[in-house]
Amino acid sequence: MNPEELDAGHLQQWVGKTEVMHEVVRPEVAAALAATLEHADVPHAGDPLPPLWHWTNFNAVVPQSQIGADGHPRRGGFLPPVPLPRRMWAGGRFVFHAPVPIGAELTRTSTIASVQAKTGSSGRLVFVTVRHAITRDGQPAITEEHDIVYRDLAAPGSTPPPPKAAPLEARWSRTIHPDPVLLFRYSALTFNGHRIHYDRSYVTEVEGYPGLIVHGPLIATLLLDLVQRELPERTIAKFSFRALAPLFDTESFDVCGTPAADGDTVRLWARNQRGELAMEAQAILHPAAAHATSPNGEPA
Q: Distance from the CA of 36 to the CA of which of 13, 28, 158, 206 falls in 20 to 30 A?
């Protein structure tokens, strides 16, 4: 397909495509992610895996010869061959059905749920939604949908859309300093070769961004990590997030949260140092007495 063409009908052929993977939640990887996120306690086999830490599993493993110019696997395998240069996470939705103990063997069945071509103020866009069903011993563990957006490079001299202001008041907040080492470590743990996270000359000169881009999944993980730091006795039932603007390694950012009056819902967001909203999210907690777990991650 010519890079300038966008054949929506051709891309629709990927809808319904499936992929099945089997992996073990490795204790040493969980320990490495815990260190990356500044956790004092080292998780061990049998401990419940914190929410979204499963992203260190089920990542595409392809030969070096099949890597594209942006560091991702070349398009056209499981994901459709969208001929637009920029690729970003746009959002996601999760249901956590049961605890996943570290050391467990999991199966993930992935399906291309939809492919939608649109035209926005920034140019052509293609949204791809992937649905993942993660099971343990044949029983549901996590249901996930994630949205990927592909877009054109920004036209020279174009004006980005005005930023959305983040909420002014937060019950909880934590400042994150996204230096290149943090971004590299998360890329390594998720086997993510996307050059926008570690190759400064590529991200600034080719894609036109001002600095290395903080991973959308890392920001989402830090949002739920904030909930668990503030409410360690509670567990997450559902989570959703939407990415609104990129964050860069050129400045720190804040992850913020405010629990609702019902006690089971938490509004979450990430903001840059100018108070602009980068990600908004919502976590729904299991009722306080629900989903108590034994040390090996099984329901008590």
A: 206
pLDDT in tens, 250-289: 999 999 999 999 999 999 999 999 999 999 999 999 998 7
Record the tokens describing residue 281, joined without a space. Answer: 């999210």
Query: How wide is the angle at C-alpha 81 spanned by C-alphas 80 and 85, nearest 5°?
Result: 120
Tell whether pTM > 0.85: yes
What are the sequence ranges of the domains in the chain? 8-285
pLDDT, tens digit (0-9, with 9 covering 90-100), for 204-221? 999 999 999 999 999 999
Confidence of residue 290 (pLDDT cuts 50, 70, 90): low
Query: Given this model, what pLDDT does residue 299 score?
Result: 42
Other C-beta atoms closer than 10 Å to the C-beta of 180 total: 13
Q: CATH number of the domain at 8-285, out of 2.40.30.20, 2.40.128.50, 3.10.129.10, 3.30.390.30?
A: 3.10.129.10
Residue 184 tokens read as: 């590299």
Give me the torsion for CA of 109, 282, 187, 40, rounded to 10°.
-110
